[in-house]
Design a protein that fits this description.
The protein has a single domain, classed as Beta-galactosidase, Chain A, domain 5 (Distorted Sandwich). 0% of the residues lie in helices and 48% in strands. It has no helices and 23 strands. Strand 12 and strand 13 form a beta hairpin.
Length: 283
């Protein structure tokens, strides 16, 4: 593991070279925040299998981000025949069972500073060539994730990115979230949205009991949300992106808000964006 720490928080990040057992094709390897600890109240993040110390790679925990090689409904994005590409993870193929696997991991260079870690990689696969820089920084009780993706090839780089933060549930297994004004949610059995306040209709139980919905986001505005926390006053999640969709998902161990960004980079083009997580003071 890699670490950032100050007087308030300790951030644990996966080491792209040493933590292969926790990594796969779904999430970006460099800058993968695995856990954040408050010096007074302990671990602040969860995951679908929490508190298992060895969750399945597909599920993971913490604050992962994904550069998607296909859409959530299965349409290929960065695939050329049998070869695919997941920026930040590596070149992809399929095993004998047809499961997508990383066949050639990208190599990361890491710079360490007192308040941040900078991860850089570059890779070519088939028609595509990219570079990626990710900076994870710690400022008091705020953890910031900054990404810069550059298309170094002669072919447009068309993919999707999304954040998949795994937030803790309240002690009773529920959650209370304040969302941007004018957010909408279709009628559903899992969640209730009243004005800006979203709650769970019931507490889910265990790994396999849960529900997925799509939030209707207000047009033209970056995504932001404030969530309850069992040990803190609250957690605020903000972005500088305008997502084209946002998935809401929870099970008995965690809740996730997943803003999606559509990326279509012409040759030579770059795109930068930032996520911020502000962890309120301990109760």
């Amino acid at each position: 593991m890699l670490h950032l720490a100050n007087a308030d928080l300790t951030v644990e990040l996966l080491d792209p070279a040493a933590d292969h057992a926790r990594l796969g094709p779904r999430f970006c390897w460099g800058g993968f925040i695995w856990q954040i600890h408050d010096r007074n109240v302990g671990a602040l993040l969860t995951g679908p299998e929490w508190p298992s110390p060895t969750p399945q790679v597909h599920n993971a925990q913490g604050l992962p981000e994904s550069f998607r090689h296909s859409t959530t409904t299965g349409q290929p994005l960065l695939w050329d025949g049998a070869t695919g590409l997941a920026p930040g993870a590596g070149v992809l193929g399929r095993d004998a069972q047809g499961t997508v696997v990383v066949t050639e991991p990208c190599e990361w260079k890491i710079e360490t500073f007192p308040d941040r870690l900078v991860f850089r990689t570059e890779q070519s696969a088939g028609r595509w060539d990219y570079s990626l820089e990710r900076t994870i920084s710690l400022h008091g009780r705020q953890v910031r994730s900054q990404s810069r993706l550059t298309n170094r090839g002669a072919t447009p780089l068309v993919l999707e990115w999304f954040a998949h933060p795994f937030f803790a549930l309240e002690a009773d297994g529920r959650q209370h979230i304040t969302l941007p004004a004018d957010t909408t949610l279709p009628e559903n059995p899992g969640y209730l949205l009243s004005n800006r306040e979203l709650t769970l209709r019931r507490a889910f139980v265990g790994v396999f009991d849960g529900h997925l919905e799509h939030l209707g986001l207000p047009a033209g505005r970056p995504f932001a949300a404030t969530l309850a926390h069992p040990r803190l006053r609250d957690v605020t999640f903000t972005t500088d992106i305008i997502p084209f969709k946002c998935v809401l998902w929870a099970n008995g161990n965690t809740l996730s808000l997943e803003p999606f960004l559509a990326l279509d980079l012409a040759p030579g083009a770059s795109r930068e964006w930032t996520l911020s997580y502000d962890f309120g003071a301990a109760r």
